[in-house]
């Protein structure tokens, strides 16, 4: 993920580009009550001259515009906003950085107060900005006006007590997840290893092939979540209240409004993309299930049944590449095992990050600043709790790049390093823009950049840097490679979509707290075709065992990124003059591809995202055809393997 300011900014960049977007802006601007422009802030914003009328009714906004407002005033207003946001976000970001690197009660409190100050400012300033509603503003200002509205994924109520409570809950949930451990009875007397961290448990999930051992790791980790449920419920109430105050029906409507189209259009567009890739997912699921049946037996995995969620090599069954050995199409085609070589060569954490950096510099990007190497966290500290979930930061919004990650010598982490550096290079290319433009074209773009480069980390490239012994040479070897990629990229797609499907329903009230877990498993079964390995009840809170839920990080961005990265890859391969099949292309070393990428990154969120998409790919919407093209040979092969099988669940 990217980490700017936990929950404060959402990496989306909507724009006023058409009438529907204008309607969103109008809706968002319809704010209730008086903007409290009292002088409690160090640099108070100008008070609106006209007060808002009635509370906003979604869809029927009252626009508290000031007929006397001028464009010059708007420009001055946004200049002040930029200065204020820099001050508030830098302070909050520093507090977050420290608290996530040292989880203690005190750092948690510091993080909460940083967030509280930003929340207070945003709610008040969004309301104040409504005075410019009737003005025809130049593009750069109208875009900042809209981005201000969408400037947080956690809007707070203006009631100070409620706001403080929400900030506390948010910081607490992040800490609770970060500290989560499983302390099995059998290790009670082991002085060295009493409790297992998520890292330990993930290693079991990826390596063990014993049904019961996997089950123990799965249930052990999921037991960290029930204490989070009551807080989550309150977070939903308070966040929704904050969203309503700035004109959205609920927090989900706010999250879905960050894509230069209406929330409803966005939902439909995401569904369109899912339908395009679903047939490929279904084939993969069918093939993998039959291989797992052969391994674990039909008494454990029945025909036509969903796959138990603990058998896919990952705690959330979100990516399946760790069980590649169980499903490898053709034996004896040479190993694709990068992990083995990383360990053999004894590459340490920094050396792995250097490999990632060298990919970016090969495209003509700058080296990472010295401070990156001094300030980042690369390794899990032995003596304290940290948030290990990988993230990338520009702490002071001034090329102060860092990553925070508990790196282990394994392929998965080498790929995640590229992912995180993608965020850092986005920051590096846009840090001179106004604060509100220092975001991805939309949040899916931000998540997709490092992954795009990682698509060029092909076997041939890996061989050239000594991490693979042999490149797949024939059709069988290529199918092995494509299947391995599909276990990561294709397996993830339904998971990427369903997390927010669940949250949108929770935020809208369609899913009541009494049904949180039931609704979660209904979606996991419907989309992924996986099932809970043991019966679950509402005493469980399984969504809380996935980082982004307690961490308040919207998730559909990762689904979008999985689609976009293939579009970006196809376009950059073309720029690099490559004409072979997409899955063999590597843009490593191509300055032409790098220039195209840089031009897009430098736009930040200053333009509606379809313009950024056009700049890099010539296309103006999400398009799954590049992903389908990449996997076309595999899809054909899977269909042959699945002949005679009863697919589906
Ligand atoms: N980049 C990942 C994510 O966005 C981080 C990870 O895979 O650990 O959450
Ligand atoms: N990085 C995201 C996650 O860990 C998506 O892969 O869930
Ligand atoms: Zn990311």
How would you sum up this structure, described in words?
This protein is an all-alpha fold and 649 residues long. Among the domains are: 2-177 and 233-247, no CATH class; 338-485 and 561-641. 55% of the residues lie in helices and 2% in strands. The chain has 24 helices and 4 strands. Helix 10 crosses helix 24, helix 13 (349-362) crosses helix 15 (411-430) and helix 15 (411-430) crosses helix 16 (443-455). The longest helix is centred in the middle third of the chain and has 34 residues, at 263-296. The two termini are 31 Å apart. The protein binds aspartic acid (ASP), serine (SER) and zinc ion. Aspartic acid (ASP) is lined by residues 1, 389-390, 416, 419.
Q: Helix/strand/pairing class, anyone? A: mainly alpha
| Through-space gap between termini | 31 Å
| Count of extended strands | 4
Low-confidence stretches: 4-62
Rg of Cα set: 24 Å
User: What order do the helices and strands follow?
Assistant: HHHHHHHHHHEHHHHEEHHHHHEHHHHH
Strand content: under 5%
Number of helices: 24
| Largest sheet data | 2 strands, parallel
Label the overall shape.
globular
Ligand types: aspartic acid, serine, zinc ion
Strand order of the largest sheet: 1-4
Helix content: 40-55%
* Mean pLDDT across all amino acids: 91
């Amino acid at each position: 993920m990217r980490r700017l300011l936990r929950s404060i900014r959402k990496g989306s960049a909507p724009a006023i580009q058409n009438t529907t977007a204008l309607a969103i802006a109008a809706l968002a601007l319809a704010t209730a009550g008086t903007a409290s422009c009292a002088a409690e802030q160090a640099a108070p914003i100008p008070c609106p001259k006209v007060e808002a009328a009635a509370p906003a009714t979604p869809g029927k906004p009252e626009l508290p515009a000031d007929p006397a407002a001028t464009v010059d005033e708007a420009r001055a207003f946004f200049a002040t906003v930029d200065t204020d946001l820099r001050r508030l976000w830098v302070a909050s970001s520093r507090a977050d950085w420290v608290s996530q690197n040292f989880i203690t009660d005190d750092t948690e409190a510091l993080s909460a107060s940083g967030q509280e100050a930003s929340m207070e400012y945003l709610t008040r300033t969004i309301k104040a900005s409504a005075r410019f509603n009737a003005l025809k503003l130049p593009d750069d200002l109208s875009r900042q006006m809209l981005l201000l509205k969408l400037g947080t994924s956690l809007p707070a109520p203006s009631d100070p007590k409620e706001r403080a409570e929400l900030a506390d809950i948010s910081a607490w949930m992040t800490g609770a997840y970060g500290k989560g451990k499983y302390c099995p009875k059998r290790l009670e007397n082991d002085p060295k290893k009493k409790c297992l961290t998520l890292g330990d448990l993930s290693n079991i999930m990826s390596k063990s092939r014993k049904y019961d051992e996997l089950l123990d790791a799965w249930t052990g980790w999921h037991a960290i979540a029930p204490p989070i449920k009551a807080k989550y419920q309150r977070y939903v109430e308070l966040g929704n209240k904050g969203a309503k105050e700035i004109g959205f029906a609920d927090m989900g409507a706010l999250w879905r409004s960050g894509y230069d189209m209406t929330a409803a259009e966005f939902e439909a567009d995401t569904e369109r993309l899912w339908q395009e890739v679903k047939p490929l997912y279904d084939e993969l699921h069918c093939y993998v299930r039959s291989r797992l049946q052969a391994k674990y037996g039909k008494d454990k995995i029945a025909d036509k049944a969903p796959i138990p969620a603990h058998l896919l090599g990952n705690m959330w069954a979100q990516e399946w590449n760790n069980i590649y050995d169980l499903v490898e199409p053709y034996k004896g085609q040479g190993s694709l095992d990068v992990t083995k070589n990383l360990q053999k060569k004894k590459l340490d954490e920094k050396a792995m990050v250097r490999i990632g950096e060298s990919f970016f510099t090969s495209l003509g990007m700058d080296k990472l600043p010295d401070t990156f190497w001094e300030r980042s966290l690369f390794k899990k500290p032995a003596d304290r709790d940290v948030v290990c979930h990988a993230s990338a930061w520009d702490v002071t919004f001034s090329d102060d790049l860092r990553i925070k990650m508990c790196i282990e010598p394994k392929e998965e982490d080498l790929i995640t390093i590229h992912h995180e550096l993608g965020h850092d290079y986005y920051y590096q290319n846009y840090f001179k823009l106004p604060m509100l433009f220092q975001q991805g074209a939309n949040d899916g773009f931000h998540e997709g950049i490092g992954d795009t480069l990682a698509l060029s980390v092909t076997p041939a490239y890996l061989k050239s840097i000594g991490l693979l012994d042999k490149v797949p040479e024939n059709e069988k070897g290529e199918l092995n490679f494509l299947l391995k990629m599909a276990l990561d990229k294709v397996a993830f797609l339904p998971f990427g979509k369903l997390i927010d499907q669940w949250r949108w329903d929770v935020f809208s009230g369609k899913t009541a707290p009494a049904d949180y877990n039931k609704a979660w498993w209904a979606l996991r079964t419907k989309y992924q075709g996986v099932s809970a390995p043991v019966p679950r009840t509402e005493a469980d809170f399984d969504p809380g065992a996935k980082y982004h839920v307690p961490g308040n990080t919207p998730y559909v961005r990762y689904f979008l990124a999985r689609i976009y990265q293939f579009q970006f890859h196809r376009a950059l391969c073309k720029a690099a003059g490559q004409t072979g099949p997409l899955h063999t292309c590597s843009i490593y070393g191509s300055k032409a591809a790098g220039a195209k990428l840089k031009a897009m990154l430098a736009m930040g969120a200053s333009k509606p995202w379809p313009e950024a998409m056009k700049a890099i790919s010539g296309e103006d919407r999400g398009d799954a055809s590049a992903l389908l093209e990449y996997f076309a040979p595999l899809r054909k092969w899977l269909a042959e393997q699945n002949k005679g099988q009863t697919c589906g669940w």
